[in-house]
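User: Please run a holo structure prediction.
Assistant: Happy to. Please share the sequence and the ligand.
User: Here you go; the ligand is adenosine-5'-triphosphate.
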Amino acid sequence: KTLIIGVTGGIASGKSTVTRAFARLGIPWVDADDTAREVVEPGEPALAEIAARYGARVLQGDGRLDRRALREIVFAAPEERRWLESVTHPRIRERLVERLAAFRRGEAPYALLISPLLFESGQAALVDRRLVIDVPEAVQIARTARRDDVDEAQARAIVAAQMPREKRLARADDVIDNAGDEAGLADQVAALDRRYRALAGLPGSR
Ligand code: ATP
């Protein structure tokens, strides 16, 4: 049976890089961030509900969601944020459940759910194993600053607002240490690939 591996990590920990490495080995994946964008595309009921509550100010000229405008509305209004989450989260979850069920019916030995908020969102309950990509905060801050062209103080503030490293690690079944170079990362992915294929072949594993 196809095992589902939940992959998580903080900002710039290497989730996309790790996903690409598994994808090169033929492993299918779904990204919770992509799914979150899909449920508010034009034609989706969640977008209609959001537009009904906030009006045209949250829509772009072409009818797509103006994420920045919406972010500004919910930023300082916890009740609005809760309302928005009550509209989007169940739909994201439903869609992820469908995708994961399709993976389980498929031929792959295992498949990935990539989610920055795997633990915070409750999505960890949808997977068989949890893989945490771990980097020291200093590395995370440096990679964020370089990639996103923000200064170190901003990068530090983003990291500080996320789940602490130790808490994430405490919930991990498997860990990738991504403090080193990309070759070291590829070796770790290859080792996990062997392990997950072996686990998927065992009777009693899901
Ligand atoms: P986010 O959730 O913030 O989008 P992410 O967890 O998907 O980030 P990546 O985009 O994979 O992280 O990596 C963050 C940055 O760090 C990228 O610029 C990537 O090229 C770089 N990076 C990732 N792994 C390594 C590595 N082992 N060595 C050097 N640079 C790396």
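Residues 9, 11-17, 116, 143, 147, 178, 180-182, 185 surround adenosine-5'-triphosphate (CB under 6 Å).
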